[in-house]
Records
---
Amino acid sequence: EDGYDLWLRYKPVEAAAKGPYAARAAAIAPARAAETPTLKVARAELERGLTGLVGKPIRAAAGSRDGVIQLSVAPQAGLSDEGYRIRTEAVNGKTTTVIAASKDIGVLYGVFRYLELIQTRQPVDKLDIASSPKVKLRMLNHWDNLNRTVERGYSGQSIFDWWRLPGHVDPRMVDYARANASIGINGTVLNNVNAKADSLTPPFIAKAAALADTFRPYGIKVYLSARFSAPIEIGGLKTADPLDPAVAAFWKAKADEIYKTIPDFGGFLVKANSEGQPGPQDYGRTHVDGANMLADAVGPHGGVVIWRAFVYSHEQPDDRAKQGYSEFKPFDGQFRDNVVIQVKNGAIDFQPREPFHPLFGAMPKSNLGMEFQITKEYLGFSTHLVYLGPLYEETLRSDTQAHGKGSTVAKVVDGSLDGRKLTVMAGVANIGTDRNWSGSQFDQANWYVFGRLAWDPEADTRAIAADWAKMTFTNDPRFVKPVVDMMMGSREAAVDYMTPLGLHHQMGRSHHYGPGPWVAGGERADWTSVYYAKAGPDGLGFDRTPSGSNATAQYAPAVGACYADLKCVDEKDLLWFHHLSWDYRLKSGDTLWNGLVKRYGQGVKYVDGMETTWAAMAPYVDAPRHAEVTDYLKIQRDEAQWWRDASVAWFGSFSKRPLPPGEKAPPKTLQEYEAMTFPWAPGI
Ligand code: BDP
């Protein structure tokens, strides 16, 4: 095995457990009428899955008999358009399993769920399951360039083969669609947010259309990142001013042209006036002017505009963490109904840990979407085993207190807090041409958990990890329990060995790989590590309380007050919000310096533990996948140590305090650590 089959391996159920599954999978009822393409793929998936799991070919069989599975499209009360119901029913005295939905796509989702029940060895003899997604647009954002490099991608090249499209559609595109549909993803943005206008030219629209045709049966719509200055670059105009009628006309015509070839085109994703990308502010206009102009172009076709809130202006800010909120909050209520503001989970940039972004809960009159990063730009790329479920869950369960207690980020994202219908959860994809798709076996789990949380932002990420581990490897409890435990703690371990106690953005310059707490100078202060850690002889941390940047004031009063109060703030966010003396006493009784050093060490120790756990898993895992994970854990172990040693050397040069008892001095000098870097790191 090489990981290509992801969690859809459909390996035979053990002989001892097979009986009840075989009994419920005697046959699939034949189609009643001509089936839609979606029903055809649902039926094919069911056949494929059951044939693999039960171990004998399962085909359509006429006539009623026990153990038939029926696929049915009929109005279902209490389910959304994409929801499904799976029930064990008596039909003409025979026991049947009915997978029913109002629309064909629900049947496909139901089929995947049914197969998952068998894959995870759940009983299937008395089923009564109903499920509807809580978020409307569940999307991957590919940061894939047209030349097939992938920004922040660590899994090979882009899977979208723009050169050969549309003449040749790689069969892998079907497996991509199957995998995404199996976790409920229903949209994909094909190109990088740092977009080229070429993606909107006729040849590229034709290429995108070929992908859209391939993905359509799986319920997946394609979207494109739109470069705001496209009217100039490919439209022959002198300006991209959103209030210029010729510019609006360009976008209307462009939208019409796209919808002619891709009738169900999802819409545009836009990164504007951010990190040098063009945008409405170049013309003295606002995010509202830009987003609404595009929204009016795609609106008549049912399209949406997803406008990113990841902005920070080029003037040196006192605190980059405040900028998204400052720029967007004043516009609440002014965006069109088909505009979604897509907000990163935290206010800086996909760090191992960030408090939730203050925009969540702060724009009740706008559609606000979540953007998570699945690719691990700041979390060790694809060689560090870091299960992101707990990171996503921590953000989603954070309480914005926008309408009092219980106003969680999840309720903002699923729209229930303010009654919003157009809801989005997006994940920056970690998918590439590597055989295992995600660069490592365990990074597949991050794709998987993202999809499951987009379906239900309140789902439990431990349970999801268990489902994934069972389907991807084995149901043997001697494997599942230790591996899920290992996964669940892996993110906290990465926080500990990289940026403990609320530190952030301490990675190597630009590529963000390995420790770089000394990174200083250059183009922008807020691209350096020293800007964020503010280490000095007096102490460490970024003061975001009212005595500092006052970023805490961007949260609901109770939340901000807690973050600003040393007695209330959780120590995991301590140095995010506070600048503290090296001798500040942590809850453990340790000084800040001692506690910090210990944390780094704990992170390293956890990776030691993962190596030991994984070594013991050899009997349950095929040799190739076991060996790959073993190698990567060794890399991670060495690099966790590197992180610890370099960080201790750097921060020790300010604290000038001795190491706590039992902690080893870094084996190299600070200068040696500073000289270690990865000039050719991938994905920049
Ligand atoms: C940062 C990445 C950069 C992206 C940017 C974005 O370093 O490559 O272009 O975010 O989200 O995380 O636009």
Note: The mean pLDDT is 97.
---
Amino acid sequence: IPLPRRLQGPGNMLHLAFRPEQFIARQTAVAPIHQVVMPWFSPYLVSDPELIDEVLVGRSKLFIKDRFTRELSLVTGNGLLVSDGDFWRRQRRLAQPAFHRERIAAYGAVMVEHAERLASTWREGQVLDIHAAMMRLTLDIVADTLFSTGVDRAIADTIGGALDVIMERFSDYTYAFLPWLARVPLPKNRRFHEARGRIDGAIRGIIAARRASGRDEGDLLSMLLRARDDEGGQMTDEQLRDEAFILFVAGHETTALALSWTWMLLSQHPAAWDKLRAELDHVLGDRAPTLADVPALRYTDWVAHESMRLYPPAWSIGREALEDLELGGVAVPRGAQLWMFQWAAHRDPRYFPRPDSFEPERWDADLARRIPRFAYFPFGGGPRLCIGNNFAMLELVLVLATLARRWRPFVRAADRPRPQFSITLRPAGGMRATLQRR
Ligand code: HEM
């Protein structure tokens, strides 16, 4: 039941601060669209799939990214995730061919190779932070597919180390509320600028070396370097650096999160684990997967879908209205912030009976086609649909299959982390798991 309006401000703040998972999940039940009043700002929460469709697809030209996301360009530069308008459109057109299905297929082998390498370093009974392990794995995969194997270990480590610092700054909400804080010479700001400088230097060096060699390495960077717009124009070095950087940021933590939450859910649900194992035994026997196996790994694919339903790595999408408009009968003024929560939509019992229960089988019989487009949207949708969505799905299936064939990373009930509603949905304090050889 919504609180009386004059109580909403502090009530909402407290609820959001102390029980974010509850606060966010109940939004679908409040109204298809409603304004939440808070002391500093009052966003509109859009919960109805048809209205989300209007914002992200039908009337997408009337919106830009929300204030928080735009603020991120200070951290990331002006790459695809944060740019808007004509600039974004041109960059998206230039980058799109690098993500065509056939191109992505070529990266499958890199994904399996890295996962196999990781699996062979694991030891029976080893206790580790499985999320940290998944972060390193997806970073190696994105580094190799973006810059190919030409990048030596030292540069990859520089990028990895600097990214840790940057991601910490990336998900610090204080800066969204107090943007001037970024200009204060605090130690954490200094650390951030140093890391940014290191990463810029590393990426610039890679781009310069590639331009000098002129070789086509068959990686994402070669595709971006070759891309031309309608007038024959190409990306400048600075644009290339920003795009390469954003692919690192957007492409590795999200995928790692999907994998980590999946290990947790599979530990909680032994029956689902058994079915996954049965499928892997049946399809793969005792060999590692290849791209050709992917269509047969149906249960693995359902597990990935169901995991991202309950723990969507991107748990919310934000937009800002460019003009006064009306949405679902509610007047939305220009400049209003609109939020759409995957965390809430994915728990709507109209489309997902027993919404809190982990049931990979529900994805059988083409569930995705039977529900509205925005009842399930881990990758967003419309023109700003995640450019890496096919890449990510392939990576999830291949990495899950490769690792689960040899190991079970088991997360005990006492070690199950709470989700932290940062920019992404993170396991608070990491995720402790014990490795069990199968
Ligand atoms: C955009 C989620 C993996 C690159 C997005 C958006 C979402 C998302 C929800 C849309 C944001 C919005 O509309 O405001 C995810 C999830 C992933 C994943 C859940 C993994 C499970 C990847 C990968 C890459 C990538 C692997 C690259 C290799 C991007 C980029 C954008 C984006 C560049 C901005 C696209 C644009 O606006 O033109 N992602 N993503 N993502 N994603 Fe992903």
Note: The mean pLDDT is 89.
